[in-house]
Design brief:
Helix content is 5%, strand content 42%. The strands form 12 sheets. Strands 12, 15, 16, 18, 23, 24, 25 and 29 form an 8-stranded antiparallel beta sheet that branches. It has an 8-stranded antiparallel beta sheet with strand order 13-14-17-26-19-20-21-22, with no helix packed on it. Strands 1, 4, 5, 7, 8 and 10 form a 6-stranded antiparallel beta sheet that branches. The longest helix is centred in the first third of the chain and has 14 residues, at 8-21.
């Protein structure tokens, strides 16, 4: 052990004090936290781990930056953060020299404070505040003690001037070294400052940019946001909301997107005291998280709750909010009651106080106390050596290895921190002061329009296929036509581009291809039939012609936790049907003893995705589930059939059909989203239907989320009898991206099918892009002359054409001649209508998204061998961000129609669909690496072009 050069009696005394008082250093202190790059003084706490921003001379401070918590013969420095400057570290007491900071401009309060320890010699061993001309403005020395103490200098007369911090060591005897850490400039309050002033205040008045100025120190704090450094699009600012005069202090708030937006302030720049705390802020949550890990979505926090350090204000499930403080010995909390829960979409004023002098913690909502929790008098706030974060949890749970949850989604404004507890009168007064800035003194609406423009320039985000306005979507469902409007709902995570926190997104259209975004229709709600999830479902109309939604209601307190509930519009006369309310009672629940056949049992817990339709005076309902043997072996998926005459009381009929996963592994152990649609009548007048399902798997499967299967047969509603033509499942889409079917019969009698197009990107790509998945084009189902299912895009896709065709070829023509005309046509939002005959070619087709040198293309082909094959060759398709590196070839049988194949091909950036002979389709994705992969080219020498038309396509929002 290296000994100190002081006299032995000094060493003995220090060792005795160490034995009496030294405590283990919390592991939290080992967390390296870099100081925000926007601070005026570079590296004020040496948290870079070196002398970056400082210039040494001599040997006293070379190598003196250390993370040591104690000095070897004793403990503890009690440094702020991880690193500090220990003058003894490099050359002991004999070394001499100086250390000078880079120049900085003093701002904020004009106060400078720093942690100093070491030897006591004001003439030869000191830290100084130095003017530009070298004049020493203030200086301080140690107290012959290694433990830091804070020294504060009043330099208000130097605000706006260039200054430096200079450390001087010209002492060589015992205690001939000095230590420094955590220099704070312009943060601390001056003597006699009004006790009512906050110590930190963010009012987000910038309305643009990637930083926000804290109003007391005037330091700019960085705003993290995924598109500050965008990967797939040009950079763009965080989501600042538009200003509005009547919104007063809340005008132009910052919107936190729920997964990538937060504000950071370094730990050393938060001047809190241990004896009291108030957090005062306005928030408008957009949605509520599940509360993974039992943690809140952080509004403001600087915490390590496990180590009982710091503080946190956040909102949990269903809007219940909580304030926590670490007092070293415990983590103490106060939680608002359900009656004071926040409401999604509404502004609320939150105040949380920590008052150890009076032994309580309190919560105030809109100026009124709503909760109080007792704490021991005399406990103190123990700070956490981590950054203060607004909008992000200091210790979040991680989803899919990529997404930090426990983050706030919505608007935050007027964040104030006080290093004392406000009393009730002050809270009420403060609330009234902000109210007075609003038009008519009324809290304004929270402006959280889902602005699609944040994705402008994304080379992969589809333009005319339906996408959620933000973040994650999976299957669109429950389509319904009411009073001239098509309504489409979809599974949506408002918090980020990952599967979690699912609600029902909502959009409306008059033509199936141009869509207008509406607010979230349904979300998990406390004390409802669906507190834990509102999953996919269907729709119908009641006896009065009003729409009714059928939801998969998630309730984890029940077993099974999936059942069927209903929701109805609050105002059925509203053409947009914006507001919906869940009915208080479930309508269909899984019976674990349901009869699904001799020697079989229903797969308990799998019961979801109702689809409902009416025939005559009877409503029919299908619910997806699975069947096992009584011994527990999987039989296959099933669609369970129910009937009702009032939409409330349902009678179980039995399985409409059960699959055979052993014989057909692609058909899955469970069927999701069973869709049952009429496609016409046969020659005998019998009703022909198609049953379409989404296979689900009980474990990992190479077929998961890739295919949709169907059966065609006859349906007799009177006898509830379904007779499929064959038990063999069929595919109408040969790609690996068409899933999630949901259907409806529209006012024209058309059977329409909607789908989700899996994007199959990596989770990191989802994070960087900010969105995941999109819908396929709506398609019309028909019955072919042979009785099989036909499929074609709805005629309304023509409404997307941007003017006259780019190319219009009629009459037989060789492909070389057509390719000459195609050479000048480029685009990634196109429709191609093409009829080809094989001629002398065995294989022929069309390349889309082709680069000039053919380094990349997506190839649709027809092969005449073996009765005919239609498919896509993706061996040259761009795979940037794709979860699969080998995209391969996907295909299936297709017989020529009249000796030719007619293709309708839709190119929409990364989304590509092709429909062949209104019978089979291929849905695929292309994430081209090159920016010039925009061309079209026919291939297959000897084939003949009968006709070809190419249109540029407009956006779904145009």
């Amino acid at each position: 052990m290296r000994r100190h050069s002081a006299a032995p009696s000094h060493v003995v005394l220090r060792l005795l004090l160490t034995l009496l008082f030294c405590l283990p250093v919390s592991s939290a202190l080992t967390t390296h936290q870099a100081v925000a790059a926007t601070t005026d003084l570079v590296n004020p706490g040496f948290e870079t781990g070196n002398l970056n921003g400082w210039t040494p001379s001599g040997t006293a401070f070379q190598g003196a930056v250390t993370s040591d918590a104690g000095w070897g013969w004793g403990c503890c420095f009690n440094q702020q953060g991880t690193y500090h400057l220990w003058g003894f570290k490099s050359g002991g007491d004999a070394a001499v020299g100086t250390l000078t900071s880079d120049a900085f401009t003093l701002s904020g309060t004009g106060m400078v404070s720093l942690l100093v320890s070491g030897g006591q010699d004001l003439n030869n061993l000191y830290v100084a505040l130095v003017a530009a001309d070298g004049t020493v403005v203030q200086k301080a020395t140690g107290t012959n003690d290694e433990a830091y103490r804070r020294v504060t200098w009043d330099a208000r007369d130097r605000v706006g001037q260039q200054l430096r911090i200079k450390v001087v060591d010209q002492a060589t005897g015992g205690w001939g070294h000095i230590n420094l850490d955590d220099v704070r400039t312009g943060l601390d309050q001056p003597p006699g400052a009004p006790s009512t002033a906050p110590v930190a205040y963010w009012n987000f008045a910038e309305h643009q940019g990637t930083s926000t100025v804290e109003g007391i120190s005037h330091q700019a704090d960085p705003i993290s946001y995924v598109f500050n450094h965008a990967v797939y699009k040009p950079n763009s600012d965080p989501l600042w909301q538009p200003t509005a005069a009547g919104d007063g202090d809340l005008s132009g708030a910052l919107k936190f997107d729920g997964y990538s937006t937060w504000v950071t302030r370094s730990a050393s720049s938060v001047p809190l005291t241990p004896d009291g705390l108030t957090i005062d802020t306005w928030v408008a949550p957009q949605a509520f998280e599940w509360g993974d890990g039992g943690k809140v979505s952080a509004i403001v926090n600087q915490q390590d709750a496990g180590a009982h350090l710091g503080f946190s204000l956040g909102v949990g499930r269903h809007g219940v909010w909580t304030f926590g403080v670490g007092t070293g010995d415990a983590w103490r909390e106060v939680t608002a009651p359900k009656s004071a829960a926040l409401t999604a979409g509404d502004w609320a004023h939150l105040v949380a106080t920590f008052d150890p002098a009076h032994g309580n913690m309190r919560l105030y909502l809109n100026g009124t106390q709503v909760a109080q929790s007792a704490i021991p008098t005399g406990v103190t706030l123990h700070p956490a050596p981590v950054p203060l974060l607004i909008g992000r949890h200091n210790q979040p749970e991680i989803i899919n290895g990529t997404f930090a949850v426990n983050m706030f989604s919505g608007l935050i404004d007027e964040v104030k921190l006080y290093n004392r507890p406000l009393d009730a009168a002050e809270v009420t007064t403060g609330h009234g002061t902000v109210l007075s800035t609003f038009a008519h003194g009324v809290i304004p609406a929270a402006h959280m329009t889902q602005d699609r423009s944040r994705y402008d320039g994304d080379k992969y985000r589809p333009g005319y296929h339906f996408t959620a306005p933000n973040h994650w979507m999976n299957e669109p469902h429950a389509p319904i036509f009411i009073k001239g409007h098509y309504h489409l709902f979809y599974q949506n995570n408002v918090h980020g581009p990952y599967w979690h926190n699912i609600s029902w997104g909502h959009a409306v259209s008059t033509d199936l291809v141009h869509w207008r975004d509406l607010p979230v229709a349904l979300a998990p709600t406390a004390d409802s039939v669906a507190p834990d999830g509102v999953w996919s479902g269907g729709s119908t109309v009641d006896k009065d012609g009003n729409p009714v939604l059928f939801i998969t209601a998630g309730n984890d307190s029940q077993r099974p936790n999936q059942a069927v509930g209903t929701a109805r519009p609050v105002d059925p006369t509203d053409p947009d049907l914006v507001h919906w309310a869940m009915d208080p009672q479930l309508v269909t629940q899984q019976d674990p003893n349901a009869n699904v056949g001799t020697g079989r049992k229903v797969r308990v817990g799998e019961f979801r995705d109702p689809t409902v339709w009416k025939e005559g005076n009877t409503w029919f309902e299908l619910v997806g589930s699975g069947v096992q043997t009584t011994g527990g072996a999987d039989v296959g998926g099933t669609a369970l059939l129910y009937t009702s005459t009032d939409l409330v009381n349902w009678t179980y009929v039995g399985p409409l059909q059960t699959g055979d996963v052993g014989a057909y592994p692609k058909s899955g152990q469970v069927w999701e989203l069973p869709t049952f649609l009429p496609i016409g009548k046969d020659a005998q007048g019998r009703q022909r239907n198609a049953l379409i399902v989404n296979p689900a798997f009980s474990g990992p499967s190479p077929y998961s989320s890739k295919n949709t299967l169907y059966w065609v047969g006859t349906w007799d509603a009177a006898t509830r009898t379904w007779t499929p033509d064959s038990t063999v499942p069929r595919m109408f889409d040969y790609g690996e991206h068409f899933t999630g079917p949901s259907g409806m019969v529209d006012s024209n009698g058309r059977s329409l099918l909607f789908s989700i197009a899996q994007d199959r990107r990596t989770e990191q790509a989802h994070y960087d892009a900010g969105w995941a998945h999109n819908a396929g084009l709506p398609v019309e189902l028909t019955m072919r002359p042979d009785g099989d299912l036909g499929i074609r895009p709805v005629a309304e896709t023509a409404n997307l054409h941007a003017g006259a065709p780019l190319l219009d070829v009629t009459g037989p023509m060789g492909i070389a001649a057509v390719n000459q005309q195609l050479a000048g046509i480029k685009g990634d939002m196109l429709q191609v209508h093409l009829t080809l005959k094989p001629g002398t070619a065995q294989r022929f087709g069309l390349d889309v998204l082709r680069s000039p040198g053919d380094e990349e293309h997506t190839r649709f082909f027809y092969d005449t061998a073996n009765g005919g094959t239609f498919g896509v060759d993706r061996t040259k398709t761009g795979s940037n961000s794709n979860v699969d590196s080998n995209l391969g070839v996907q295909s299936g049988p297709l017989v020529l129609d009249g000796g030719q194949v007619t293709l309708d091909v839709f190119v929409d950036r990364s989304m590509v669909e092709a429909y062949a002979n209104s019978y089979k389709s291929v849905t695929t994705r292309a994430y081209d690496v090159r920016n010039d992969s925009l061309g079209l080219q026919l291939w297959g020498d000897g084939s003949v072009v009968q006709s070809m038309t190419v249109w540029k396509m407009n956006s779904m929002t145009d």
